[in-house]
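Just curious. Protein, please.
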Amino acid sequence: MLRQPLFSNLTTGSRMLLLVLVILLSGAVSLSLSYLVSVVVWGKDIFITSADPGSANIVFLRFVQMFNQLGFFLLPPLLYAWLSEQSPSGFLGFSRPPASTLFLSLVLILSSIPLMGELSRWNEQLDLPGWLSGIERWMIDSEESAMELTLRFLGEPGISSLLINLTMIALLPALGEELLFRSALLGILRKVFRGIHWPVILSSVIFSALHLQFFGFLPRFVLGLVFGYLYLWSGSVWVPASMHFVNNASVVIAAWLYNNKVSSVPADEFGTTSSETLIISSLFICLVILYVIFRNSRKPDLHHDFS
């Protein structure tokens, strides 16, 4: 006998509202708990002295970052599925993917590095009209602040820092963001639209926009599209989650190798290339792999709601 969740009979709009409310509630709890723990461990002045990411307590920054990743990304889709779905694991896509699909998807994400680097370069050339100069300045400040914090995390050379960064920057975002944006959000949007394309596109736009890193919007949006389609074609969240992990982990490892003087490529230049041949080859390989995965996929029914 199937379990009867508390909110199993909600309309699609109400399901979206429930997801938002769960995110806000879970996020508020995580913020409150992280504040209380920080005050106990470091004292209330930690929030003043940590206003500058370049000089802030690195342990405090890592703690807050990971704690809030749990509260805003990982827990909400799990709670939402438990509250609204008869089969939470089925809704979230916790099924084993075909080994060939998983392997090809990992080859794809590694092959896409030059292409994503070129898309990032295009995106960084964004130039808004003069009357939007205030917004452009805010976007630049936001981007620089996020980059400063990321480089601070990646700047530690020790092996313990490597393991912490792999957890904080690769593992937790890969699990939390894929469960939230692919499993939960994409699953709800598929109840609204016929077919799979609009749900994938809209979830990718939201996925990229909520990172608040506007000069990286384009490559992140393209990755969102790839993650979304591969999630639907494979029927398993482990495919995009694995790709997401490898994508982020490659930057973490590249930064660690640079900081330990093994590599000459800094983190903010990783993936960039001026070779048109390499960029075109990257695009070609990615398209071929996507086609092969699609041809061998389960091709879910366009009106299936994964519930």
About this structure: Confidence is low (pLDDT under 50) at residues 300-307. The chain is about 70% helix and 0% strand. The two ends are 16 Å apart (CA to CA). Residues 211 and 217 are 8 Å apart (CA to CA).
